[in-house]
Structure prediction request, 946 residues.
Amino acid sequence: MITLPEKIAFALILMGSTAWFAWRISVLVRLVRMGKPDPDDRFANPVGRIADVFVDVFSQRRVFRKPFVGVFHLFIVWGFFVYAINTVNHFAGAFVPDFDLLGRTQFALWYSSVADVFAVLIIVGVLGLAFRRHVLRPSSLTRPSAESVLVFTFIGGAMVAYLLDHSIHIALGVHPRSAYHIVASMLAPVFVGWNELLLNVIAHLAWWFDSVTHLVLVALLFIPTKHLHLLAGPVNLAFPRTRPRGQLAMMNLEAEDVESFGVSKIEDYTWKQNLDLLACIECGRCQDFCPTANTAKPLNPKKLIVDLKHHLLQDGPALLKAKAGEATAERPATPDLIGGVVDVDAVWACTTCASCVEHCPMGIEHIDKIVDMRRHLVLMEAQFPEQADGAFRNMETAGNPWGFAPTARAGWAQGLDVPLMADKKKVDVLFWVGCSGSYDDRCKRISVAIVEILRAAGVDFAILGPEERCTCESARRLGNEYLYQTATQEIVETFGMYEFKRILTACPHCFNTFANEYASFGANYDVVHHAEFISELVAAGKLSLDGHGSASAPVAVHDSCYLARHNGIIDAPREALTAAGRTLVSVPREGRKGFCCGAGGGRMWLEETSGERINRVRAKELADTGAQTVATMCPFCMTMLVDGAKANGDGAAEVKDIAEIIAAALTGSAGVPPALASSAGGTPAVQK
Amino acid sequence: MKVVVLIKRVPDTASELQVAADGKSVVTGGLKFVMSPYDEHAVELAIQLKESHGAEVVVLSAGPPETKEIIRSALAMGADSGILVDTAQLGALTCRGTARLLAAALADLGADLVVAGKQAVDDDAAQVPERVAELLGIPHASVITRFELSGTTASVDREIEGGQYTLELPLPALFTTQKGINTPRYPTLPNIMKAKKKEIREVPAAQLGLAADSLSAQATTEAMTLPRQQRLCRVIEGDNAQRVKELVRVLHMEEKVL
Prediction:
């Protein structure tokens, strides 16, 4: 079909580009492998992993979480695979006349029809996505984006060129399979009667356009564009973590050979973290429910990943070269990772709410990258926001973030005759109260409500009282791994002194710590958060809930990130509330799409100085539902939402923990929260 | 240049204290002990001098063997070595005895500069460092909020009620630090790990060659009580004459402060 000079030119281009692709792939592979060993077992169950990737790619289930995008993207993905045979035929056909991978079979003829249809579907897919980006303009997408215009034009253009090439040959009467090219043969009549020379010129141009666009599209895979996701995306999806989402990587702080802890340079990341960067498609789903990106703060998860990716691709090759050379060679100068590539304030802004991780279609793990930078700042540089200093010191010496007396820990239980583990030694349920439930005046009422529920259900339980101490979960997420591990050793020792079947926590952060993190320390417990525990008691018929006057008042549920997204606990609190006769109103952002209160990731102890206040945004959203009660399950959320509503000047809705709502609905309850014994504590402020 | 920092082990400020059954002492079981917070400023000052002038920083404390833990904290901040004067075999010490022990331990250290917190937050006596300086015969200034070194002269600001002195003292000299002079650093992990290997020299009090009666307490504790915990607010009603009368009666008869 093409002339000899064209063949020669094409052969040269093909050889040159193949060599270039091979070189680029080797660079990318080396950039990924420049990373450190990953602490997770990324190679467990290889068959299952690969099967999952196939399902991900062919079903597009991750992309379909946004159905509009899902449909159009599916056309392109399936089109890509269907069209692959055609691509091979096209390239080989340049040198072997009438080459067909499928041979001279009936199947090959049918395939021509299918390929024609998919050429159209791909064009529809491209137009749909282009329409979304350039007309609908969702805020998650970058605009204008020369890259995306290039990709749209080339993918769509290649399909148009393909159809053009075939319809002209049909019009010229020289196409052997004209009957099977159902779309091309419909277009062919347009060209009948045109100047033959002109048609031949157009056909050659179309052929070249088709060829070159393919090469350019392949080339785009290997230069720093989001197009790289075609290659790195599926590979990345093959290496999801085996540890739970709520578990940070364990650090060996005693390691003698480690010179620097945490991440301060791009080469400090693990190979999987590097692969994550290459896989980013820049779709911006990570921003959709991100508390910082939505309140004008310096942290935007998409920008974080894209900036890290460009840093890796730009400065990585020089680092590789230096590494390959003399061991003593000096590290080439690159921009500082923290403070250069990534804004320091962005590092501290994250609430670790996991909305980015939850919604990323490429399986990127954002939180770990941020915590690793915090680890470096805290452990190596002792650099952190000054409010964290007081919290760290108090957690260390007083065992709580505010610096209240450790001996006053059970003050909330005064007069309630709550049994202590030290006296009982052996119980069914160890009730882990947590710092807020022990010292914060508002949250102490939650602890009391939980005790009422436990008593009503006849549960055999006890608390640790003065033997309890802060888990230092928030310190860990602020990067203070040393403090966290010290606290963990103490707590595991305390647990070891007693016998219990389950640990009940009143705080999702304590829950996540025991349920997901302690396994790294070889300590495994059956842990339950009170939202689930209450729901279990209700289901088992152990609680008699006849409701009270306000029972029908509608409730808006505010999901805790560490229950809903980190641990998938979404239905339990809703079931319990429904059982107590409450009607639930829907909240725009709830469940896995919930919006953080702003206190996670240790942000509870830090000032929020930039942008809108997260808790005010969330409190307003909840107030706008018109619900009279906002149900929380986390003491941090409680504090943030009460403060948020107060700052908004909005006192219409009361914020109640789910335990308080259930306790008030217990048969025989007065329907009002019990009075609290006065004791040490108060409205805590971090003492500096 | 050698800087010696005097530090003291005290109950954490968050502790709820209890008076022991004898009515004369504090129950120490169950208490968490820390370095007295003002001493942290002294350690920070010394470490800054280490960074700016290459000073060697030695931490010195007198107390029971557990005091090594807080010496370790100072080492984790960056001090070079520690000395513990073990007082386990001694009876109760007052400021007089403690100062003599510390002065004796300091005698052959050749310190160019001695720093300490302005007071320990347990007994709030604010005497030991000054007594040490007097025993050693070196000049001293208390409650400083600024320290600058030029050659062998130290220029300091000393906080007084409603104002401040700016003083210049020749070294060797002793200073006690007030809040505001600096922000004590948070120890880094490598420094915490290094601190575990740094030397803490233990000196039994008996080796210092002090006569037993020179350490004896010159005062005895008769009784110890906790400050009243419950703070009740009370509004006295009536016309002014009645209210004054009632106020005087309450202050005299009930509160017994008049």
The helical segments of chain B are 37-53, 68-77, 95-106, 128-136, 189-195, 212-215, 240-254. The longest strand of chain B covers residues 140-150. Residues 37-53 of chain B form the longest helix (17 residues). Chain B has two domains: 2-215, 228-258.
